[in-house]
Amino acid sequence: RADLRPGIPNTEALTGTAWRAAWRAAAARPSLGYPAQGAYRLRELVAEHLRVTRSAPATAEDVLITSGARDGLRTLLGAVGPDSVVAVEDPGYPSLRAVLRDHGHRVVPVPVDAEGMEIAALEEVNPQVVLVTPSHQYPLGATMSAPRRHQLLDYAARRGAIVVEDDYDSELRYVGQPHPALAGVDSGGRVATLGSFSKTVAPGLGLGFVLMPEGLREEMRARATPASGMVQDAMIHFMEADGFRHHLARMRREYRRRREVFVEVFGRRRAVPMDGGLHAVVYLEEAGQERAVVERCARRGLVVQALSEYWSSPQRSGIVLGIGAYSLDRTRELLGEVRAVIRAVESVDPRAKVEGR
């Protein structure tokens, strides 16, 4: 009946005039396609977006248009070289670890604490690539501290590693101001920033970008595969008409309301409001409770995700709930059902929280 897995945005707001006009304009003059690096105008607009929103000094030549974040990561790792050792956050994306392994790379989980990836543990691994989510650690939501960012960049400069910043939802922050992108404070050309329109616009768009590190640009361009020309044209029109900026502002307001609904349903004693993003984390006492909640939700037709799946070896129990996909009223109703399931299994741990704290 409902998919409450994390990362699914609400696409109902895309039915506005600017979005429809962008696709009409793209269809009126069907694209003949673009070079593998992407349409120059779209790269200009993405670079401007990164300068304004992420304080990253980007130009069109620095940007590679991709078919999404995973396509960008595949191209980047191909440029680094085969059989790379890739350090990833633990906990972190379970599906991403599988993708990396499927492409022949050695994946090494590195613990994170309240400030981000632990550099001492990273030193022991000595990877060629470090994949991090510094703006909003996934799934627990912490923001990498300024000292830890500088330690990470110092490490990359000393060891010659590439830091890949997965900027998966920084535009959807609605409490406080985001930190600048790592690329904005990197003086050694060691950072690549992955971006995607899947959460800010729609997953089915199949469009993303990479802010490329200088030393890998030529190799990445050579390995890139072109994204859809029609989709690029539509996004160009959407961004030029200021539709993208207005859409982001609207969605930040909408997702802030989802946060308020989550607190309303679960209670402030058990939930701390998030700083941004599309999901919430609820901790449970033990693995048995986690399995019971996931299974009982499934019997009701509700798909939720187990928190333990995000670790290389299960360390914490809980559930990860997507709160972005449905209308406000529907979200309230669905979260109420999940809350009832949790109550039936056992009362929620007082440490329950929403990502971002």
Description:
It is a single chain. The protein is of the alpha/beta class. It folds into two domains: 2-10 and 245-347, Aspartate Aminotransferase, domain 1 (Alpha-Beta Complex), CATH 3.90.1150; 17-243, Aspartate Aminotransferase, domain 2, CATH 3.40.640. It has helices at 17-28, 40-54, 69-80, 94-102, 119-125, 146-159, 182-185, 217-223, 229-240, 243-266, 287-299, 328-345; strands at residues 2-3, 63-66, 85-90, 106-113, 116-117, 129-132, 162-166, 191-196, 208-211, 279-284, 302-303, 305-306, 317-322. It has an eight-stranded mixed β-sheet with strand order 2-9-8-7-6-3-4-5, with helices on both faces. A three-stranded antiparallel β-sheet has the order 10-13-12. A two-stranded parallel sheet has the order 1-11. Strand 3 (85-90), helix 4 and strand 4 form a beta-alpha-beta unit. Helix 10 (243-266) packs parallel to helix 12. The longest helix has 24 residues, at 243-266. It is globular. The mean pLDDT is 89.
| Level-2 CATH architecture of the largest domain | 3-Layer(aba) Sandwich
CATH fold node name of the largest domain: Aspartate Aminotransferase, domain 2
CATH H-level superfamily title of the largest domain:
Type I PLP-dependent aspartate aminotransferase-like (Major domain)
* Strand arrangement across the biggest beta sheet: 2-9-8-7-6-3-4-5
Q: How many helix segments?
A: 12
Q: What is the arithmetic mean of pLDDT?
A: 89
The percent of residues in helical segments reads: 40-55%
Structural classification: alpha/beta
Q: What would you report as the Rg, rounded to the nearest angstrom? A: 20 Å
> What is the CATH top level name of the largest domain?
Alpha Beta
